Amino acid sequence: MWIGLLSDIHANREALEATLDHARRTGISRFVFLGDYVGYGADPGYVVDTVMREVEAGAVALLGNHDAAIGSGPGGMNSIAAEAIEWTRPRLDSTQREFLAQLPLTFNDNGRLFVHASAHAPTHWEYITDVPSASRSFMATQAHATFCGHVHVPELFHLSSTGKIAGFQPVQAVEIPLLTNRRWLAVLGSVGQPRDFNPTACYGALDTERNALTYVRVPYDNETAARKVREAGLPAILSDRLIEGA
Amino acid sequence: MNRRDLQAGQIIDGFRLVEPLESGGMASFWRVTRDGSGPPMVMKIPLLRPGEDPLTIIGYEVEQMILPRLTGPHIPTFIAAGDFERPYIVMEFIAGASVKSLLARVPLIPNEVAAIGAKIAFALHDIHRQHVIHLDLKPSNVTLRGEDAVLIDFGLSRHDQLPDLVQEEAEGPVGTGAYISPEQVLGQRNDPRSDLFSLGVILYFLATGGRPFGDPEGVNNWRRRLWRDPVPPRARNAAVPPWLQEIILRCLETDPAARYATAAQLAFDLQHPDQVPLTTRAARMRHDGIFTVFWRWLRVNRQPERARPALTSHLANAPIVVAAIDLEPGNDGLNQSLAIAVRRILATESNSRLACVNVLKIARLSLDDLEDAQGRNPHLGRLIELKHWARSIPIAPERITYHVLESTDPAGQLIDYARHNRVDHIVIGARGSSIVRRYLGSVSARVVAEAPCTVTVVRRPREEVDAAAERVAAQRA
């Protein structure tokens, strides 16, 4: 079975629509959403409604730090992220806010762990950007493969049977076999705000039978998404990022 | 699994062990069947024992990752793989002789060395195009099956779009002492030309009966090839012709950029000995003196690491381009257009090879007299015309060759030529609205339809096309 892994949508309606459409055309019918549905983008209500509908249809949705900040406040965030949270909160209705508030931090399925940031202390929202941070996540779980987001830059870490960890920059649309002899930590890119100098939406396609992961890039109407961010009066850097992908 | 745990008749995941085959150092091999029928298969079982070299298990993982993605006649077809508890790989059994078995009767005659070398080069080009560098090419890893060389054991290989598990595991360079390339000794694992170096070692061995760098053990001894050039093949075996020495020493260049750009370009030279441009390499009779070697040693130890292009972009910059030239009178305008088109293509692809080809149309197969009425060889005149045509193309002499082919079927001949030489791009003129074409059909149209590569069709300059169209219209009226 194919599972679509979508992380860090960040209220980007255009990116979400294009990604779901691409995934369905590829034959993906099951989804795991890895958090951060809101913050930064101009369409938080639309994105939360879409994810709620998918969850009703059987999808799994996890909690991200921006989603948590809607309820608990933007403590610990940088000023731009905090400003976006303050902008977002009044634009969500109570149903949407309650949906975000009850989301779980992790999901375990058949040797696979799904979490927004890191298997190590999920509520600390640690960024997995290097071997030490990847190592902390590997140590915190027995899962054969962990899937997370949060960083907005795709990377695939792996731990060999002799204990060595290395990171790998995945190549778009090239299937990577998640060999059973080693453990894997897939940092999925971001659907709604990529930061790897490639502005196209990024999602993961996991083939559970063949145990293989593909990082997929989807071009979407980022100019419209950026224009909406500008018109909403959000910080200019948030619209620029959608054009530059960084 | 332990070697002694295995016995004939045992069944592993539906595969019945039939008989053990020759064991490698890191794995045992069994002939197996499934349901008692089907194509012959071999099961490779890594020997995983406590304290074993971790590269054994890594090599197994690499093969498990790479082998299923490779296709074609130069790779054993992947059939199945086991899991963590019971690791194995089942693949097609390759019936044929290992190149290792040829070492019993070295030195071989030059033509046989070239023929075997071309087969291996084609196999390498095939895997390089599929994003894989073998990185442990040696006689025991090549089996000759009919017209094809089949590469086996991808345990140290690198796929340029997948994680390099070997690099991450190994503390230092990995490979086989006699065959490893200088850049691999320095820890680089992303250059397809490393395989050309190893193939050069094989060719040297087949042609001379000896190994160019011996069979050193340990990384420190492997490093010696970074500054010490081998004794030229002709100094070891006088029967080695200059063209073969040229090819072998070019493969064995320390700097990958000085070797052939691609395996297909190497195969091209091995298939056309008379076209190999000879340099000082061909004439060398002794290896370099102590001062040259000392300078090289100094440079090696000061050289900064260089970034290297990814495999795919490297191959894309090094195509074999064929210019198909019609030397019939009246084609000057068309041939000028062709030269302009070829210049444009070569300008963007820095490591390309250009083959200028003319097909001499003959009435019937191989019965024509090769001399014209005045007793001149028509090939010679055409070669001169081809060289004349190519004068306006700015390209180094070692990157251009000239070929006059003959056939009753020029289009078919060009298509075969492109397939046989792994040509990437054919540039061909369209004769346009001529009466000839109406009667004979279009060569370029058939080449476009059937050639196994990109084809650019070039037309005459616009004014000539218009004038020809007017002539045809006038004839019809």
Provide a brief overview of the structure.
The complex is a heterodimer of chains A (246) and B (477). By secondary structure, chain A is of the alpha/beta class.
Features:
heterodimer, A: 246 residues, alpha/beta, Purple Acid Phosphatase, chain A, domain 2, six-stranded mixed sheet, 33% helix, globular, B: 477 residues, Phosphorylase Kinase, domain 1, Transferase(Phosphotransferase), domain 1, Rossmann fold, 3 domains, six-stranded antiparallel sheet, five-stranded parallel sheet, 19 helices, 16 strands, 38% helix
**Mean pLDDT value of chain B:** 87
CATH superfamily of chain A: Metallo-dependent phosphatases
Q: In the CATH hierarchy, what is the architecture of chain A at level 2?
A: 4-Layer Sandwich
* CATH fold group of chain A: Purple Acid Phosphatase, chain A, domain 2
Helix content of chain B: 25-40%
How many angstroms separate the termini of chain A?
33 Å
The level-1 CATH class of chain A: Alpha Beta
Instruction: Please summarize the sheet with the most strands of chain A.
Output: 6 strands, mixed
Tally of DSSP helical segments of chain B: 19
Biggest sheet details of chain B: 6 strands, antiparallel
CATH architecture of the largest domain in chain B: Orthogonal Bundle
Pair with the most extensive interface? A-B, 16 and 18 residues
Number of domains of chain A: 1
Mind sketching the topology for me?
The complex is a heterodimer of chains A (246) and B (477).
Chain A: E1 2-6, H1 13-26, E2 30-33, H2 44-56, E3 60-61, H3 65-72, H4 79-88, H5 94-101, E4 106-109, E5 112-115, H6 131-139, E6 145-148, E7 155-159, E8 165-168, E9 176-177, E10 183-187, E11 201-207, E12 212-218, H7 222-231, H8 236-244
Parallel strand pairs in A: 1-2, 2-3, 5-6, 6-10
Antiparallel strand pairs in A: 1-11, 4-5, 7-8, 7-10, 9-12, 11-12
Helix pairs in contact in A: 7-8
Chain B: E1 11-12, E2 15-20, E3 27-34, E4 37-46, H1 54-66, E5 78-81, E6 89-92, E7 97-98, H2 99-102, H3 110-129, E8 132-133, E9 142-145, E10 148-151, E11 158-159, H4 165-169, H5 182-185, H6 193-208, H7 219-222, H8 233-236, H9 242-251, H10 263-271, H11 280-283, H12 290-300, H13 311-316, E12 320-324, H14 332-348, E13 353-361, H15 378-389, E14 400-407, H16 410-420, E15 425-429, H17 435-440, H18 443-450, E16 454-458, H19 462-476
Parallel strand pairs in B: 12-13, 12-15, 13-14, 15-16
Antiparallel strand pairs in B: 1-2, 2-3, 3-4, 4-6, 5-6, 7-9, 8-11, 9-10
Helix pairs in contact in B: 3-6, 3-10, 6-9, 16-18
